[in-house]
Amino acid sequence: MTAANATVLTARALLLDMDGTLVNSDAVVERCWRRWAERHGLDFEHVIKIVHGRQGYASMAVLLPERSMEENYAENRVMLAEETADMEGVVPVPGAGAFLESLAGLPHALVTSADVPLSTGRMAAAGLPLPAVRVTAENVGASKPDPEGFLKGAAELGFDPADCVVFEDSGAGIAAGRAAGMRVVGVGPRAGEFAPTVQVDDLTQVRVTAVPGGGLELSFG
Q: What's the chain's average pLDDT?
C-alpha cells in the first residue's frame, strides 16, 4: 500500500467504480478491445492504455479522432453487446465481497462507465451485490474523465462532493474524481501512476467503520 497523504480518511459517503475496482473484468475487456484494435489496424498495447475507465465511444474518439461520433456510438453499441455476452474470467477484486458487506446500511453508490445490462451482468458474474444507488452510462452525457457521474452520485446520496471519497482504478476515473472535488482511493496497480490520495493493492487493505454523527472512517493497510 502507498498512502500519499494519509492512512486514515473520513467521509460521509463512498462512490465506487466497478471495473478494476470491485470487479476484475480485464480478461473480457482485453479480448473485446484486441479484436477492435485488429479491425482498425491499431496497436493493442496503446489501445488498452486508453480504454480503462472510459465509455467505449469516448475511447474510440480518442483513438480514431478523425471519425464521426455517430460511428463511435454505433460501434460502441456493438462493443457493449459483445462485452455483455462474455462473462468468462470475470471475478471479484480480492476483498470486494467483504468490503461491500461492510457498507450495508452506509451511504455508497456505484458510479460506472458500463450500462445497466453490462454492470448488472458483471456484478452478478463476480458474485457481488449491486449497491442500491447506481449511476451508469445511461445517466450521464459525458464519460469519465468528466466528473459528471461522480457529481450525480454525490447528489443522489445527498452529500457535498467534498464529503465523498471515490474508489477508482483508472487514470480517467481518478481524474474524474479529482475534477469533482473528491478524494480518491486508487485500487490496484494501474492507479499508482495517477497519484490518488491513497493507493491500495486491493480491497483487502480497506476497512470501513461508521462513526458517531453519520460519518465514515476509512483505514488502510
A: 94
Beta strands in the chain (DSSP E): 2-3, 8-11, 13-16, 23-24, 91-92, 108-111, 133-135, 164-168, 183-187, 198-200, 206-211, 215-220
Annotation marks residue 146 as catalytic = no
Catalytic residue among 19, 26, 146, 163: 19
Beta bridge partners of 110: 16, 134
62: cell is 480518442
CA of 59: how far to CAs of 48, 75, 207, in Å?
A: 10, 11, 33
**pLDDT tens digits along 54-93:** 899 999 999 999 999 999 999 999 999 999 999 999 999 9
**Strand ranges across the sheet with 8-11:** 8-11, 215-220, 206-211
Give the active site residue among 17, 26, 115, 202. Answer: 17
Annotation says 19 is catalytic: yes
CA atoms within 13 A on the CB side of 196: 32
